[in-house]
Design brief:
The protein has helices at 18-27, 45-48, 53-74, 87-97, 112-117, 120-127; strands at 2-8, 28-41, 79-85, 102-106, 131-135. With 136 residues, it is α/β, with parallel strands linked by helices. The protein has one domain: Rossmann fold (3-Layer(aba) Sandwich). α4 (87-97) runs parallel beside α6 (120-127).
């Protein structure tokens, strides 16, 4: 059983986000905690200059609200965090900083592009310093 579980969530994956939360609840030790994490892809600098700052802040607020709704429906005690950055590196950095002992995340069936550049889940599995449980 794990005391500190991280569940990275891609909010555009819809119902695929529920299964990792259910698995995390099964793996959670008494007194442990689950954190839902959404990382919004960093906007390239040349695009960022053209967008009003409020637009970026609204994306973060909307993601936080959606993540909190997912937590409320599936595990109300979960902490919810939203950051901007590169998903695979953001997941790894957060896991290291917060001393996560297990990451539970969804992955899609690998396609040709994943063999060429790799998926977020594959990168997390390769570089995480803790246990990683992948759900398909």
């Amino acid at each position: 059983m794990y005391k500190n579980i991280l569940v990275p969530v891609a909010l555009d994956h819809g119902s695929k986000s529920k299964t990792p939360i259910e698995i995390a609840k099964c793996l959670l030790a008494d007194g442990g905690k689950i954190t839902l994490l959404n990382i919004i892809n960093k906007i390239p600098g040349y695009v960022e200059l053209e967008l009003p700052k409020e637009t970026q802040l609204n994306w973060i607020k909307e993601s936080q609200t959606e993540l909190e709704g997912l937590a409320r429906d599936n595990y109300p005690k979960a902490q919810c965090k939203v950051f901007e950055g590169h998903p695979n590196q953001g997941i790894l950095d957060y896991a290291n900083e917060m001393e996560i002992d297990c990451i539970v995340m969804a992955s899609h069936k690998p396609g040709l592009q994943d063999y060429l550049i790799g998926s977020t889940a594959a990168r997390v599995v390769r570089h995480a310093k803790c246990a990683v449980h992948i759900v398909r």
